[in-house]
Amino acid sequence: MSPSTRSFSALLALAVSLSTFSQSVSAQDPPMSTYPPTALADKHFAYPTGIPYKVDTDQGLIRGFQHGYNQCNSTTENQKSLCQTSFLNSIDDFCLWAPDLPESIVANTEGEMVAWCTKPGRGTRLIPANALKGVQFMRTPDYVQVVGFIDQSKINIQSADYGGEMDPHGADLRGNPMGGLMYSNAFSGGADNFQQVIEWHNFMGGNGFCLKACDPAGPNAAHFCEHRLDRIGCAYNAPNNAQNGTFEACKGDNQDFPGVYTAEGGAVVTYTQPPEEQGAISTMPYQPKVPASSECQQFTSAVLYKALASVTAAIDSTVTAAPTGGAHGSGTGKGAPVKTGTAAGAQNTTNDAQTIVAGGLVTVFGVVFSAMFFS
Ligand SMILES: *[C@@H]1O[C@H](CO)[C@@H](O)[C@H](O)[C@H]1NC(C)=O
Ligand SMILES: *[C@@H]1O[C@H](CO)[C@@H](O)[C@H](O)[C@H]1NC(C)=O
Q1: pTM for this structure?
Q2: Cβ atoms < 10 Å from Cβ of 311
Q3: CA 290 to centroid of ligand 2, rounded, Å
């Protein structure tokens, strides 16, 4: 079964259960539908004046309403901001998608994620001081990418969560998060010339992350920013040699398209991700190539992220040593200390397939949602 078939059948299952639910609430409600008239990836807005309050406003869709908003300004700039307009510009200027509320699981909140940024001034939350432990920014002919290590509890992700993928598609084409927009000045001359990035992907989890923004003018943007391989993490979707404790910006060659590799004997093969029902992915048929890089410049995090110095986390992991309330595999099984999987690339930079096992100990809820909306 292809990933889209898998996603679709999971979606259908949820659609059935949700419509049963809504019928029991009121027989008068109009039937819910899955797809918006216009896919998120087809909605394009000039920054900042063309951006509406919310970009996802259709009624009666199965996943409900957009959680936050896209018009973000000084009024919305605080640690409760629900701004869903994000940026990837440079090593000192990027945002990550992370949950609204503390101690969340990525798989359960990916549709509602909000922007957490390194720079003030755009109406978003700020990443708390000392959350970023190592960051590598890479500029290549077709994309910019930031990969790093983070204390994810400081951005509301349970510390043991192996995470998941955000991208502007999702099985229902509303994106994860729904209505999330991405901008960059990396392809449009820098400074305040922000251009909408149409294809991007962001893996969060395992105290690591990777975010790639593909050049909208590039002929292969959708391939470099592939969004179907949601279970094999940064190591396969954004092969990198980022190091914990190091902050650097480099130039690099393009990666292979995620999932595309050259087998022994020279044939070019496209990997197909097995469906969730087959359990954890324990072996991979290839090791992704980390592209060559050059002109790396190293920085001090306190200088890069000066503006974050006084930003504190809602949950301070140095105080809350062990998350309570079932964070580590209570009856719900949420956040069971599975082997780091999804964002593993940041850590497992040798890309040993044996160490990059997507977590299999998720709840049925988590599995359904990851099957549905990661792609
Ligand atoms: C600031 O953003 C909020 C939320 O999108 C919006 O309601 C408000 O009108 C904006 N304020 C200004 C001055 O643009
Ligand atoms: C990165 O290094 C910090 C120490 O600076 C450590 O606490 C953290 O666990 C490391 N992160 C990962 C994902 O290995």
Answers
A1: 0.81
A2: 19
A3: 22
